[in-house]
Amino acid sequence: MNLSKLESILKGRNSQPHQLIEVLQDVQESYGYIPEEAMREISKTLGVPLIEVYRVASFYKAFKLKPTGKYVITICNGTACHVRGAQLLLDQAMGQLGIKPGDVTDDGMFSIEHVNCLGACALGPIASGNGSFLHHMTPAKLRKFIETIRHEETEEVNNAKASHERRPGGHRETASPR
Amino acid sequence: MPKLATKEDLEVIGKQLLLDRKKINKTIIVCGGTGCKASHSQDVIEAINQELTTQEMDSSVHLRMTGCHGFCEQGPIAVIEPGNIFYCHITPEDAHDIVTRTLQNGEVIERLLYTDPVSGRKIRTESEIPFYLAQDRQLLSHNREVNPCSIEDYIAVGGYTALAKAINSLSPEEIIHEIKVSGLRGRGGGGFPTGRKWAECSEASSDEKYVICNADEGDPGAYMDRCVLEGNPHLVIEGMMIGAYAVGATKGYIYVRNEYPLAVKHARFAVQQARKLGLLGENILGSSFSFDVDVARGGGAFVCGESTALMASLEGKVGEPRPKDVHTVVDGLWHKPTTLNNVETWANVPSIILNGANWFASKGTKGSKGTKILSLTGRIKNTGLVEVAMGTPIRDVVFNIGGGATDGKAIKAVQTGGPSGGCLPVDKFDLPVDFDVLYEAGSMIGSGGMVVMDESSCMVDVAKYFLTFLQDESCGMCVPCRLGIDRMLEIITDITEGRGTLEQLDLIEELADTVTQTSLCGLGKTAANPVLSTLRYFREEYEAHINNKECPAGVCKALIEYSIDPEKCTGCGRCTLACIHGAISGEKKEPHVINPELCQKCGICRSECKHEAIQVR
Lengths: 178, 617
Description:
The structure holds two protein chains of two kinds. Chain A is built from seven helices and four strands. Chain A is α+β, with helices and mostly antiparallel strands. Chain A has two domains: about 5-60, Arc Repressor Mutant, subunit A (Orthogonal Bundle), CATH 1.10.10; about 70-165, Glutaredoxin (3-Layer(aba) Sandwich). In chain A, strands 2-1-3-4 form a four-stranded mixed β-sheet, with helices on one face. In chain A, α1 (about 5-10) packs antiparallel against α2, α3 crosses α4 and α6 packs parallel to α7 (about 140-165). The mean pLDDT of chain B is about 95. Chain B contains 25 helices and 19 strands. Chain B starts with 6 loop residues before the first helix and ends with a strand. Classes of the chains: A alpha+beta, B alpha/beta. At the A-B interface, α2, α4, α5, α6 and β4 of A face α2, β11, β15, α18 and α25 of B.
């Protein structure tokens, strides 16, 4: 874990227990989740018992206690999306990726989040891919969205492999012509 | 801009900014709210900007990126003034035409006009669109006048003059009196009289007091607070400042949902701008009034809509409510007197101060004054944010503004007030939007969510949906809420899965009563509403689930079977491709079949089928 980001988050917040949620928000934003090490540091710096840090971090939905996949597929489960078939999207994502909300695929590529409301209710059902909204979603659109990401990722890996093999001097990273 | 040291400074700057604004006579207003952003309005704005530069028109045309206009379904949208020309579903490719044809030559581009789904005709101006025509947009209309990131825009249209009036020529008592007479009631859901709240807080003696803006809009299916804070943050801040002056507070907090990044950004930016101009800080506009605001991000807990839980969260703690035998206006944040109002409530304050209490009270009903923003969503043609005078019948909102049902299906109910509210059937649609009337009907205005449901929604499933939500969101501190919701959900699940009995309906009513009477906070006290209201108005649906083991709407998975109508199936294979469980098979161009052993009843095949061949029984 890169501690420098955490240090800058905690800077100037020594012994300020009321800053706990704000600090956790910043950690969540920087690291994508709240690592245990970060909780220990926060506890020491803010002067909040570790158990209280954990209690707050596990109470609020904004905080994740484990890392997410590279791509987070978020399915909105607000009432407006629900009556327009949001359940279909969840079934599609779970079936296609073989995971449940909160879990990560084995290759670390995808995770699914099932959230209460994204606040774009008029355009439902809403899904989002890494934060950018996809409106009026259907299972077919979601399937293609996930397939496209997978395809691009595979291409990227293949390209990386190909350029790696083309490189003079074999497989040594340091032997890059640049 | 220099610091504004006096009331006169503000007047001079305001006049100057308005003059500057009038120099440019053509304006294109493009919505940059979250809804339109989801439809890629940012690309449209950039394309128009680029085109204006290329055509060397950037000094003669003003491009204004604004907050939400409300008609999110049609996004990205733009309005061109003068002329009030309304374009919808704009793409970046349209930028060239808009700039050269409309802005340069005054020509109206037919293909970008809005088509009324009811009459089928193209409509040229924004004001003629039925969606807007039937509204009374007192708050939302400000959104199109200002770029939310520009305090200059806000001042140009008269921003902060209500504050100047309040702190220079009105005493705190006079302001509280004015708010009381206006009849303003809390827009967050409770509907508590705002003036009374302020009076109690002002009477409490303390060295320090706080005001809080609750922008932690937790109701699923509602987004009016996001739209107001995101689109016009200075209006909210100005309202808070007037409130702070009235109750004697020196510090304010805007507690905003972290899921609304744009609202967080705009609120923070607005606070910085106001500080820079001296509108927040010490001795505001030369008066003895000092006040500052901080923006705090919420952690995403529905229970934080409860004032005491929200205050606990602001203190950096778990959002658990506490008994309110001593009110938060006396013992609130950090145990100091605190006035907490919702975004929309604060946003109403400046115009009451400017136009007077009687102006505000002239709209609405006996007990509910002014206008209310509703988030009109669900299974209707026109969805978006709607602002109507209190007292407007639900029927007008759903049919005149919302345009009625989609896909020719019959509308069955409207769910108002979020998880604390209830479902009202069509025969109650003549009821007005009014705090007390809707409460008596077993629902509530709540924060203004209005989700329309048609015959494809199962009301037992809706009750289950809300109970699942509330079970997840209950903080778990008090027993009636924690266990009561659990047990109610258990019973409803039994019913949706075909194990229900008629005796359970009596049991759930009894249980609902206990949870309502004995829970500590608003979450638990209202948790039974979705169940009770659906039981009250849609009992026959519960009975169909129990007696006939059938779900009339075809939603509850345990009670339905999917099959393919061989007459309608063309064997196109779309469903086979779509089925994630491999449950559908068949030869090409031959009718397909569903294997009931493998079918998970998700319904994805049905949403894919172009021939309506997938049946539910």
